[in-house]
Amino acid sequence: xxxxxxxxxxxxxxxxxxxxxxxxxxxxxxxxxxxxxxxxxxxxxxxxxxxxxxxxxxxxxxxxxxxxxxxxxxxxxxxxxxxxxxxxxxxxxxxxxxxxxxxxxxxxxxxxxxxxxxxxxxxxxxxxxxxxxxxxxxxxxxxxxxxxxxxxxxxxxxxxxxxxxxxxxxxxxxxxxxxxxxxxxxxxxxxxx
Length: 193
Hints:
CATH class of the largest domain: Mainly Alpha
Number of helices: 9
Order of helices and strands: HHHHHHHHH
CATH superfamily of the largest domain: Tetracycline Repressor, domain 2
Number of domains: 2
DNA-binding region: 28-47
Helix content: over 70%
CATH architecture of the largest domain: Orthogonal Bundle
Distance between the termini: 62 Å
Organism: Clostridium diolis
CATH topology of the largest domain: Tetracycline Repressor, domain 2
Number of strands: 0
Largest sheet: none
Keywords: DNA-binding
Strand content: under 5%
Pfam families: TetR_C_27, TetR_N
Protein name: HTH tetR-type domain-containing protein
């Protein structure tokens, strides 16, 4: 492969393929370089080692996972409807990933455990998205709170239980998600706080 055609996206695609093939524990930069037919030094021009590259793969996965949520933020709908859609999108994203690509999902769970800064950024992004919808709801007169960020953090924490793989097989999962989301939205609508 030409050095000209080597870029971060190409490296990330190859890294995903190597991780899929060998798993995150056994895969390494040399494997990625071999797949791309470049020296491992060429990879180091773009990433400062395995941790940096694996973090970039994890970050890209989270970005893909949250893409539908970003579209929900652009919807022209009342804040309570938008918040319900956003929360359902958050909790279903990983569930769908686990169903549609279980091998990569398992690999990403391992990667995520090592990429705590990337995960913290992803959580903060989720909280900020919820906060935007809560602020919209305050403006619309639907939600009542003096601390949109703190409420958003609480909403995120309350629904985060449903992103854990242990909940994926629960036959009542969908009903439980809806119940929690409805309860949270009722709480935000309560003007007697």
